Amino acid sequence: MKGFPGGMQQFVKQANQMQTKLKKLQDELDTREYEATSGGGAVTAKIKGDSQLLSLRVSDDVFKSGDKDMLQDLILTAVNEVIKKAKETSAAEMEKVTGALKMPGLF
Which of 2, 11, 15, 30 shows its CA 20 to 30 Å from the CA of 76? Predict the structure, then answer.
């Protein structure tokens, strides 16, 4: 086939190999743990790569302040930050396997 060095069979073989690598990488990324803090360490959120919340720690000082709105903001910030960190890491690791290849429906 024109445009595919080695023909269509070679292209399909390479695509299957890439798919296998991507599946293995995704499985590994899903088990990684990520952590982020907010409020200078007042709140710490920890998730797995599959976005499962593993823990949420709040310092005693935040509770003592009695500021419910501040606590809610700190929790949201920490959780959103750790999710962002996990997504960015996953995207960067996937790009290492795929190069800059952007093919809708493959990943």
Answer: 30
